[in-house]
Amino acid sequence: MSRAFNFSAGPATLPEPVLRQAQAEMLEWRDARASLVELSHRGAEFIEVAQQAEADLRRLLSIPADYAVLFLQGGATAQQALIPLNFAEPGQAADYVLSGHWGKTAVKQARPYVDVRIAASSEAGGFRDIPPREAWTLTPGAAYVHITANETIHGVEFRGAPEVGEVPLVADFSSSIASEPIDVSRYGVIYAGAQKNLGPVGITVVIVRRDLLERAGQPRADIFDYRSHARSESMLNTPPTWNWYVLGLTVKWMLDEGGVEEFARRNARKAAMLYEVIDGSGGFYRNEVAPHARSRMNVPFFLREEALDKLFLAESKAAGLLALKGHRALGGMRASIYNAMPEEGVRALAEFMRDFQRRHG
Ligand SMILES: *Cc1c(COP(=O)(O)O)cnc(C)c1O
After folding, report:
1. Of 55, 82, 327, 330, which has the highest C-beta tally within 10 A?
2. Is the pLDDT of residue 1 over 80?
3. Rounded to whole angstroms, how far apart are CA atoms 321 and 158?
4. Where in the chain is CATH 3.40.640.10?
5. What digits encode the pLDDT tens for the residues 149-188?
6. Is 218 near ligand 1, meaning CB less than 6 Å away?
7. Catalytically annotated residue among 56, 95, 196, 252
8. Is 76 known to sit in a ligand binding site?
């Protein structure tokens, strides 16, 4: 059996060359006579791997020098709690813009530490759009404004950074980092769990403007302090070395493939293929997100007849198209088409969808 096309939302498909290299290097790291996974994180071998990964990520995302890059554990969810602890004073207001499920988890994690203000929300409309910027109510003196750049479950994506004035913009980029060029300087903090578009689960990237690290924040343990992580180059305690290494391979692969400009082109073509099938299906398939806010990374869709869901999943799986079941919060289907999903995989899915409609429509 060969590898299928895997549309999982995360952990998600990785580039095959990355998996092959990781496999080839698993048993013995160069001339170390041990696996990288068995070596000290403070040894020369791993330090080199870690520094190369950071340098490559800085190049891939054009991260300016006045931003620190942290490699942390706890996933995006832990950062959602650490952000108010590090950047807001006790009881200070922070603005949250909700465009889907993950914005709500950010609020849930922040609530114990900060005066959460919902500056805008598209929840009343079922999270099918980005709340229009004119309708946001920003709080004067807020610690930051938090957005979710791409809502992985609802399939709603910001196009570019919204204007929020002097207040730092904090953005959860877990499911769209490196999918297109971004202007990092528009953000105070960018964070992303790696398991969607950057590599394996178990490591999270936090890109933070260095002046924000001077903020007092709130009483917190050293291990929850971004400043301490920055000072110790993310080696305050034992980092997830293997995950860091595979992230580095994935980033290197993205650079070799042509960088974020090239992925922006591929991702636009991939998303267009699926939305065309959906919109051209005469209602057999539907995606209800406002076209200008549709995600290029996660394409949720529903079949007109829910009774066909099981058959769709069984037949797609048999055709080598995996993990198309939608998130339980929404039902229906979802195709996650991150950088590592080749265009031929999306073409195969589009053809399967047309064929399925011909047979069952
Ligand atoms: C997956 C995801 C999360 C949660 O990530 P964890 O690593 O499970 O904490 C948060 N935000 C977004 C946008 C996601 O896609």
Report:
1. 82
2. no
3. 28
4. 16-256
5. 999 999 999 999 999 999 999 999 999 999 999 999 999 9
6. no
7. 196
8. yes
CB 179 within 8 A of CB 205: no
- Nearest atom, ligand 1, residue 74 CA: 9
Q: Is 80 in the pocket of ligand 1 (CB under 6 A)?
A: no
**What sign results for the dihedral spanned by CA atoms 68, 74, 77, 81?**
negative
How confident is the model over 8-34, as pLDDT tens digits? 999 999 999 999 999 999 999 999 999
Residue nearest to atom 10 of ligand 1 (CA): 76
Distance between CA 304 and CA 72 in Å, rounded?
42
Neighbour tally for 356: CB within 10 Å: 20
Catalytic residue at 196? Answer: yes
The CA distance from 147 to 31, in Å, is 45
Q: Which pLDDT value is given to residue 329? A: 87
**Ligand 1 pocket test target in 8, 71, 72, 77 with most atoms within 8 Å of CB:** 77
Prediction pTM value? 0.98
Which homologous superfamily is 258-360 in?
Aspartate Aminotransferase, domain 1 (3.90.1150.10)
Q: Which of 142, 141, 121, 117 is nearest to 131 (CA)?
A: 121
DSSP secondary structure string for all residues of 15-50: -HHHHHHHHHHSS--TTSSS-GGGS-TTSHHHHHHH
Q: Tell me the CA–centroid distance for residue 361 and ligand 1, in Å.
A: 35
Q: Which amino acid is it at 261?
A: E
| Residue 172 annotated to the active site | yes
Structure tokens given for 256: 């070799």
Tell me where in the chain the CATH 3.90.1150.10 domain(s) lie. Answer: 258-360
Q: Whose CA is nearest to atom 14 of ligand 1?
A: 174
CA-nearest of 99, 67, 94, 63 to 81 is 94
CATH node for 16-256: 3.40.640.10
Do the annotations mark residue 139 as ligand-binding?
A: no
Q: Which pLDDT tens digit goes with each residue over 77-98?
A: 999 999 999 999 998 999 999 9
> Mean pLDDT across the chain, nearest whole number?
97
On whether 244 is known to bind a ligand per the annotation, the reply is no
